[in-house]
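W.,

You were right to be curious about this one. When I first looked at the sequence I had no strong expectations either way, so I just let the prediction run and decided to look at it fresh. Below is the sequence, 88 residues in total, followed by the output.
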Amino acid sequence: MVQSLVRRHPVITFFALACALSWWVVLLYRTDVSDVPIAGFGPVLAAVVVLALTQGRPGLGRLFRSMVRWRVPVGCRTPGPAGGPAVG
């Protein structure tokens, strides 16, 4: 039931989850449970949850593979001062 609702309204679900996951920390801060007033991970977690519910494992796999795939031509990669790859 939840999955079909998310599939029909993914953008609304994303915004609702992003707000909920970003602002729940304020309740902890207001009640002196936590000293950290801000958490910026809400939109990222909301995107991963909505993607998992709409596209499943294949969608998550494509997302995480695209995060680590290099799209820079080999000739443009030069070693930086620390020895790691850098775009030159």
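Here's what jumped out at me. The longest helix spans residues 42-68. And, maybe more interesting for your project: The chain has three helices and two strands.

Coffee later to discuss?

I.
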